[in-house]
Amino acid sequence: MSETETTGASYAAAGVDIEAGDRAVELMKQWVKKTQRPEVAGLGGLGGFAGLFDASALKRFERPLLASATDGVGTKVDIARQMGVYDTIGHDLVAMVMDDIVVCGAEPLFMTDYICVGKVHPERVAAIVKGIAEGCVLAGCSLVGGETAEHPGLLGPDDFDVAGAGTGVVEADRLLGADRIRTGDAVIAMAASGLHSNGYSLVRHVLFDRAGMRLDQQVEEFGRTLGEELLEPTRIYSLDCLALMRTTNVHAFSHVTGGGLAANLARVIPDGLHATVDRSTWSPGAVFDLVGKAGQVERLELEKTLNMGVGMIAVVPADSADVALTTLADRGLDAWVAGEITERGEHTTGATLTGDYAV
Name one Pfam family in it (predicted). Predict the structure, then answer.
């Protein structure tokens, strides 16, 4: 045996490919660079042990409050894996994190990601980061770092998961929430791009296990394949919400994620008040109808699992509703007055849906 040969154990023999990881980092650098805000330009760069952000930028605030959130995209990653499409799931990740942060009125600042794979395929990892970077641009924040972890033996060679954490900032006296909401306020609904990133365990069970549908199956109502519909990226509302704050006196936002519209809206409704949302003001869309019919899922079960076509809610004074709708329309976002804030009365919950969906 030569001096360079060995029969001992090694990291590579255990399934971890360090060189592939280094290659993935090189491939993703071009995308991360596109997300740089002025506060991170020239500081460190990708590959360091920590991401850097120039906090002197916060001097423009009288009393800056930092807002943070962390999230993933759930079992939607399995649709991406089966489709072999990796450059959209990052949009979902940014939306799930940064749209939570903007709810309190905070401006997104920076984000980090965590990508866990069974085996590092550099091009795949770079594609995931490309999607995250593009999402960060849409949210107005910087991607300052992250981690790619290879877990052979725990995940299959093609399996992966993603998670992320973000930070934003809001002036203390501009903090949004339940204490600002008043009787008579208008509830503005902002259209979802599709299922977004919640409820995919139900969706997969209904469409695949029960209905026997295939990802490559053409669906006439969608005008594309089922897989393409299910992979539609989650809409990122961050900059739309910030624009709304500049033109109207927004009282609160609610990001419609797990739990559905009523449960998430109730989180920002104060004691003594109630939000009534009229289903007849919108039609949820074909994908929600398909899931309901294919699985014979009751409407209330759908509504507490899926967003039903509304991804973000804004609560504004009634006399600001028209300006709010104009602002959102100018940004290409479909929105409408879906309800109002009233005294709670006999209601035991903070928000309810009434009526039937528009056909």
Answer: AIRS
Closest CA to 75 of 226, 197, 196: 197
CATH number at residue 235: 3.90.650.10
Domain endpoint, select from 171, 191, 208:
171
Residue 261 maps to a domain? yes
Q: Quick: pLDDT tens for 3-15.
A: 455 555 544 555 5
Range of the domain at 59: 15-171
Q: Is residue 312 domain-shared with residue 187, that is, in the same domain?
A: yes
CA R_g for the chain: 22
For position 141, which CATH number holds?
3.30.1330.10
| Alpha-carbon torsion angle 38, 241, 320, 266, nearest 10 | -140
Token digits for 226?
A: 């089922």
221-268 residue pLDDT tens: 999 999 999 999 999 999 999 999 999 999 999 999 989 999 999 999
| E-state strands within 61-220 | 64-72, 107-117, 142-150, 160-171, 186-191, 218-219
Using pLDDT thresholds of 50, 70 and 90, give the confidence band for residue 74. very high
Residue 79, pLDDT above cutoff 90:
yes
Q: Is 266:350 a contact under the CB 8 Å cutoff?
A: yes
155 and 27 inside one domain: yes
